[in-house]
Amino acid sequence: MNFKICISISKTIFLGAIMFLLTAFGYREPHYCKITDRIVDNYVKEYAKPRRLSLTGYGGAMMDDIQIIDFSFLSFEALNVEEARILYVEMMEEFLQRINAHEKIRPHLHNFPFEVANIKLSIAFEDSERKITSDGHMALMYIGRNQDLVYRGHDVETDEFYSLHREPYAEARKIVMGK
Predict the structure, then answer these.
(1) Which of 53, 58, 67, 114 could form a Cys-Cys staple with 71, CB 3.0–4.6 A?
(2) What is the C-alpha separation between 105 and 99, in angstroms, rounded?
(3) What is the 3-state secondary structure (H, E, C) of 159-170?
């Protein structure tokens, strides 16, 4: 009798595992995620690569709709604050223009038009030897709290980042775009 119970339990566990595996392979990425992937791919090919920027990370918050798009780039340019501001603002504005102009993605955006608050863009800077740039040049920049554009330098001796500059994104945009 115990043997039959063991066989029955084993069959149940085996069938449960098979069902779990079959349902796991049945997941399909939402259509709007695929559209977003194409928009990002085109942006990288047409806009970022010609500027010698490499995409190093991409994701976001896209469970029920597209709430946030998060991406990181790597640049091998040594830029000061003014040059980095231009690069960042132009990258952000170009991506916002592309996503807001794409008619098929609009119904899936959490809010339309998509805004700076919906994009988490960061740019890291390294030299040709793949070391973080230093000597007062930009090492990292990103949008921080309250939509502030954060500019960070890197101290080689302490291996720590430090603040170079911080300003509201709207102010940086106004400086670059004149609007």
Answers:
(1) 58
(2) 7
(3) CEEEEEEEEEHH
Query: CA–CA separation, 153 vs 148, rounded Å?
Result: 16
100-139 pLDDT, tens digit per residue, is 999 999 999 999 999 999 999 999 999 878 788 777 789 9
- Tell me the domain boundaries of the chain: 29-177
Listed as ranges, residues in the chain with pLDDT below 70 are: 1-7, 16-17, 19-28, 179
**What is residue 164's predicted lDDT score, i.e. its pLDDT?**
94
Cα separation of 75 and 52, whole Å?
Answer: 7
| Distance from C-alpha of 73 to C-alpha of 58, rounded to nearest angstrom | 9
**Maximum CA extent, the chain:** 84
Residues in Cβ contact with 51 at an 8 Å cutoff, skipping those fewer than 6 apart: 75, 87
Strand (E) or helix (H) holding 173: helix 169-177
- pLDDT computed for residue 22 by the predictor: 61
Note whether 139 and 132 are within 8 A (CB).
yes
The Cα-based distances of 119 to 1, 58, 91, 109, 127 in angstroms read 63, 11, 11, 12, 26
The three-point CA angle 24-29-34 to 5° equals 155
Nearest one of 74, 75, 81, 82 to 58, comparing CA atoms: 74
